[in-house]
Prior knowledge:
By secondary structure, the protein is an all-alpha fold. The chain has helices spanning 3-13, 16-42, 47-67, 78-101, 104-111, 114-124, 132-150, 157-184, 188-210, 225-251, 254-275, 282-315. Helix 4 (78-101) packs across helix 9 (188-210) and helix 7 runs antiparallel to helix 12. The longest helix has 34 residues, at 282-315. The radius of gyration is 20 Å and the shape is globular. The model has no long low-confidence stretch (mean pLDDT 80).
Amino acid sequence: MSSTMATRLSDLFGNSRLIAGLLVNLLSSICIVFINKWIYVHYGFPNMTMTLIHFVVTWLGLYICQKMDIFSPKSLRPSKIILLALSFCGFVVFTNLSLQSNTIGTYQLAKTMTTPVIIAIQTIHYRKTFSTKIKLTLVPITLGVILNSYYDVRFNLLGIIFATLGVFVTSLYQVWVGAKQHELQVNSMQLLYYQAPMSSAFLLILVPFFEPLSGEGGIFGPWSFQALVMVLLSGVIAFLVNLSIYWIIGNTSPVTYNMFGHFKFCITLLGGYVLFQDPLSLNQGLGILCTLTGILAYTHFKLAEQEEGKSKLTQRP
């Protein structure tokens, strides 16, 4: 572990407000995975409808935040964010379908493929260059995901298709979010405030074509009070996840958030095996270890490059 990473971690733990923010993010990020999986397994609540509820609750939460002056909304032209809103729908729906169809281990590992895909998109489309060390870290990440998926005893083709689509659309969304923030001169919360209701409108149009509205498995079906409470709770936690992500990145950096993400990654995997009795073979364990080694190496080299870039800037006359 580099001294840079150790210094950054000691700075984190010296700030009580930041620790509180990290704890909120840790608990909400882990809870959302387990609550959603619980809803799919025990209630069979329709995926797109639950995503729509998440979007509406997120928008209402942001509306309350801007009324409390946590952020100031900025007027944006709908045509400027329509693709972003569509990709937001796609990434949440496909990610939830991946969670619904796969074990938590396969779902969680598949998400790590977002980093290699983002690098590929930025290299091919945006002509961005990355060091050889960064590119080499993608080998153990990819190899670990393939190993885990191949030896997953609950492997299913549909789940892998959903996971692949989820990774691709998520990567596009993350690249576009960065580009749109720069282009429109807005922060993440301002962007999400306009994006969430637009995404809700798209899903509202699509839901009747893909999911029943009434009867068994429909939004207006005979759901128990417990099921409805769990879905609403899932929406509130989804809002807390989004809010805490933006707060942590705004008060630290995306790299610090990703470092913290490795810890959540391990806890979520462990929770999947404990709560849902997801089976784990030795080869899957090796795959998980391989992926974790790759993402830790990626973060280490990324931190080192950023520090090197900062030192070069300060040395300039």
